[in-house]
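Case study 2.
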Amino acid sequence: MSDTRPTTTPGPEPFRVFDGDLDDLASTLAKTMAEVRQHGVILDRLGSEPESVPAADQQSDGAPAAEAVGPEQAEGPASVFILALGGEAYAVELAVLSDWVNYLFLPVYGREISTTRPWCAQWYEHPEAVARLHALWLAWQQFTDTEAGLSGPSTWHRDHLDQTLVHLRAPDGPFAACTTSANRPNHRVLATPAPVQSEVAA
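Prediction:
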């Protein structure tokens, strides 16, 4: 009598990750998740932009007809610079900027904190720091694009990164009252000059 019992095939070997590779794996995963979040924010931003004006609604010179431009389009931001944005648009832009600062700028260009190179973990509360980092990020997008050519990244380092670091982390820069030692974190937004009140002629 033949044996009709089903034969079992051995399952696949379990996948093992060496302890030394776990840090690299965690770092890669964190960067991938940051990129996914950044792409999601960009897609949300693109989805909220007004649709282009159909050709039938354009004038002969290619400009949109006056009746085709709605109030939302007329009141849109006149600049991509973060200081020109407000409300939700500012928050979305700051979130994307934060990913770039935390996962690219600081790991590569952060350098050690010292009395001559202060830093603030709450940089997003310093208007000047936000403005400088956003401008640097906009330039990074332009000069690391393939259309910038092979010298694009070099131009970004020379004309944008170096100048930003000099002003951003100067002893009298926006972080002058913040952390000068990694062991003693500190955060304080420096007061700015009060606006001059112009006298109204009677």
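The chain has five helices and no strands.
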